[in-house]
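Hey L., structure's done. Input below.
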Amino acid sequence: MTPLTEPLGLARALIRCPSVTPDDAGALDVLEATLDELGFSCHKLVFSEEGTADIANLYARLGDASPNFCFAGHTDVVPVGNPEGWDTDPFGAEIIDGHLCGRGAADMKGAIASFVAALARFLAERPDGFDGSISLLITGDEETFAINGTVKVLDWLDQRGETLDVCLVGEPTNPEKLGDMIKIGRRGSLVGHLTVFGTQGHTAYGHLADNPIPRLLEMLRAITEKSLDEGTDHFPPSAIEISTIDTGNAATNLIPDRTSASFNIRFNDLHSSASIERWLRQTFDEIGGDEIGGDEIGGDEIGGDEIGGDKAGGRYELKLQVSGEAFLCPPGEWSELVADAVERTIGIRPELSTSGGTSDARFIHRACPVAEFGLPGKTMHKANERTALDDLEKLADIYKAVLDAYFARR
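Output:
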């Protein structure tokens, strides 16, 4: 096998491509060349949408028979932040104290490299082929709005009549050590931007003004004072966190004419974004008075004329952005196969969990059963992101065990 079909060699080559979303920086070319060598048919897919950057994606498949085992991931990475916070070149892929260092080492170029290494070993043991197909769905916009990536690749597959039978997503799912956790679902995520309007005035003559700040605080208190739910068998309770409150007022003797806040709701499968929206608007209407216009879920600009406006009722504006609905792939044959492979390989039985943020699994679960398992994520999105060299090799062994077990059942 060539250096790029070993996990460390490919991981280093990928990290050295500074593929901060939306710039691919050659990462998909490196991966495509390696998969070509293994006999895959590769399709570079560039998707666009007005107001967004063009995004390059890669779909590669070996074989045309079913079942189609898919590995999904992303080569884009988040920015490095303050370069002075790094001990090494963020894109240098240096090896220090038994760790591969660089942006994407944990999230998730390391996992992609481990899967390709597992593929190479799996295929080397089967010179006469195997029953079924293996594919990789690799996107370039997972770390941002996820508009021109996985969603559109899935649409492209549907138009071609191609189906996925199971999918393993290589996100860094392990909180502490390799083998801790497999993700079988994710909470939904909704961001709200709330602006409350009043009437500007002098603080010494408050009766001539309408201070929107107390009304904003009351509206926020109304959505945070009680729990949305107590959780489910597979999900923790839904949670609301206030992320910003801003008036932009530098004067201490001025009552502002508006104030705003942003909040994030991570909701379980007892709710949908639509039901959360209804609850928010009903709650805010009872306190904040009339809403200005209205917006669609997804964060579109609010339209319509201003209405209301008296001091008793006031006015507010609410914009919502939904990055994903809650979903669950109930424990079953697929998640147990992955868990068995982990335990058989490294002697640890992973927990099945729905914790953490969102991932592209929120789209893929609509197409097929999905499970997520990758490297430890303690350093993802941080300065000095790194992964242990031993974990890269162990993850390749685990992925190979998953492939062996899956195709042994066919």
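The longest helix spans residues 389-408. The mean pLDDT is 92.

-- N.
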